[in-house]
Each structure stands twice: as structure tokens, then as C-alpha cells.
Predict the structure.
Amino acid sequence: MLNKLQDALMAGKKADVETLVDQALAAGIPTRRILNEGLIAGMEKLGVMFKNNEVFIPEVLVAARAMNAGLTKLEPYLIKDKIEPKGVVVIGTVKGDLHDIGKNLVAMMLKGAGYKIVDLGADVAADRFVDAARQNKADVVALSALLTTTMIQMKAIVQAVQAAGLGVSVIVGGAPLTQDYADQIGAKGYAPDAASAVDIVHRLVVK
Ligand code: B1M
């Protein structure tokens, strides 16, 4: 069933992805397997095809829409009800970068772990991160970038948040990022995936 889910995702068949996620849940397949072995595995395969010019932006866009629909179906299972938020996280994808699937997943997992999430979306400028952190009394600002051409802005965002003197920790993630890079730009943490993002936020927020 998870292979079918991968195929439907890669073909951008949103309705089929939704149905197959429902069927997988009904069959008792663990949410994490549906996510990792179905949705994310399908998107990774498509990423290789994209790189090799076997598929192009329109196909990837419809697959991304199908992926987001699948994630929305999984969201209630990734999120447990929490009454008091453990902290506030402002999250967004940096300016010039439209990739939002990984960022959405990180936001969802953090919500599930009990944090209030202020999601600024994609293509977000430094001043919006600073304003949102100030207005929402954020504990953490989480930055996502999927392009080597946009990740370089993270340094300026880290500096802008520090200059605002809000005492907010900035953490970074996204496929081209590394711990070394995070250290170089002065970020408080780097997360290679959504689960590690939750661990890092716990470490920074829960005293
Ligand atoms: Co784009 N794209 N794309 N793309 N795209 C990549 C990233 C690329 C690697 C494809 C490739 O060549 N193999 C390549 C980047 C190369 C590089 O810079 N090194 C690329 C390119 C080149 C481009 C364009 C420039 C193509 C063009 O126009 N010629 C263009 C740029 C547009 C722009 O942003 N300005 C472009 C466009 C697009 C679409 C719009 C078509 C679409 C995005 C749709 C959307 O997001 N709504 C798209 C997609 C879907 C991809 C791939 C195929 C899949 C990305 C994805 O969603 N992965 C991608 C190839 C790939 O990654 N294999 C590719 C699934 C997601 C769950 O994983 O986002 O890595 P990921 O998130 C992970 C971790 O990284 C981490 O946790 C997540 C969950 O585990 N994480 C964080 C992410 N953010 C975090 C934040 C945190 C912590 C962890 O906070 C602290």
C-alpha cells in the first residue's frame, strides 16, 4: 500500500493520495511509516527525477500539492491535544525560497509536541521574522531553506534577531544545511529532520 502511495504522490494524484493515506491509517499502518515510507520516500524519488531532468517544475508542483494534502490527513495523528503550550516557535522559509513542505512538517511535529506555532509561510524576509518574534514573545525562531542560493541569507536573519535583543534562539534546517554551517552563522541549533527539530526546541525551551 505504501508503494501505491509513493506512486500516487509522484503522479501528483491528490485525491488518490488522500484515499491511500486514509486506507493506510485504517489498516493500522503506523503514522510514521506512512509519512516516511510513503509520502517522504515518494518525494525523494521525485527529487532524483527532477535533478535528472526526467520531470519538471509542473509535475513537482502537483506532487507537492498532493504531498501537502497527505500531510493534512496525517496531521491529527501527529498532533496530540496539549492545553498549555510549552513555548512559542516562529517558523518560516527564508526570502526567495518557495519550498514549504519540510517547513510544514516541522511545524506540524512541533505543534504535536505542544508548542504554539506562528507559521509565516515561505519567502519570508528577515524583518518579518523579527517582528513576529517580538509580537508573539517567541522562544525560538526556526528557519528553513532548501536552496544553496537562499540558505546564505540565514546569517543576516540570525544577526537581525540577535540585534533586536529579544533573547530568542534561532535554529535552522533544510536539505542543504549542515551543523558546520549553522555554527558558522551563529545559529543555536541545526536539525536535519523534523523529529530532531523537536528535540532541539525542547532543549532550548524546556528548562
Ligand atoms: Co525545488 N529544488 N526548486 N521545488 N525541490 C530542490 C530543493 C532540489 C534539491 C532539486 C534537485 O535539483 N535535486 C534543488 C535545489 C538545489 C540546490 O540549491 N542545492 C531545487 C531547485 C533547483 C529548485 C528551483 C530553483 C528549480 C527551478 O526553478 N529551476 C525552484 C526554486 C523555486 C524557489 O524556491 N524560488 C524549485 C521549485 C520547486 C517547486 C516549487 C516545484 C517545489 C516546491 C513546492 C513546495 O514546497 N510547496 C519543489 C520541490 C518539491 C523540490 C524537491 C523535489 C522536494 C523538496 C521537498 O519538499 N522534500 C527537492 C528535491 C529534494 O529535496 N529531494 C527540490 C520533502 C521534505 C519533507 O523534505 O524539505 O528536505 P525537506 O525537509 C526536511 C528536512 O530538510 C528538514 O526537515 C524536513 C522533514 O524531515 N527541514 C527542517 C526542513 N526545513 C527545516 C526547518 C527546520 C528544521 C528542519 O527548522 C529549524
In short: The chain has ten helices and five strands. The beta strands are 88-93, 116-119, 140-144, 169-173, 189-191. The CA atoms of residues 146 and 176 lie 6 Å apart.
